[in-house]
Amino acid sequence: MDWGIAILQLVVDLFPGMKVVSVGKKAKSACRKLRIKTIGHLNHPRRADIFREQFDFLFPKRYASDLMRTDVWRKLKFCRL
Q1: Of 31, 29, 45, whose CA–CA distance to 78 is shortest?
Q2: Which residue range is the domain that position 72 belongs to?
Q3: DSSP string covering 32-57, please?
Q4: According to a count of CB atoms within 10 Å of the terminal CB, is the N or C end of the chain lower?
Q5: pTM of the full predicted structure?
Q6: Longest Cα separation, the chain
Q7: How confident is the model over 1-38, as pLDDT tens digits?
Q8: Cα–Cα distance for residue pair 76/48, rounded to 1 Å
Q9: Do residues 80 and 28 touch, judged by C-beta distance below 8 A?
């Protein structure tokens, strides 16, 4: 977890102004610890019903389906802190 927090800080520093959404309790905790302001939080995708509802709320349908089909999403959904 410690290296994940260090990497998260580096990414946020590299991309100032980037909007951050935490996914899972550990990510939410890491963002709080680093005082990173997030635009939202999603439960871990393991709880697909809640995750999908939260995802649809944060991202309009027009963009959500496109994002879910990208290679970036497929890679991100397996990343954890």
Answers
A1: 45
A2: 2-76
A3: HHTT---SEEE--TTSHHHHHHHHHH
A4: N
A5: 0.64
A6: 36
A7: 688 889 889 999 999 888 898 988 999 999 999 999 99
A8: 15
A9: no
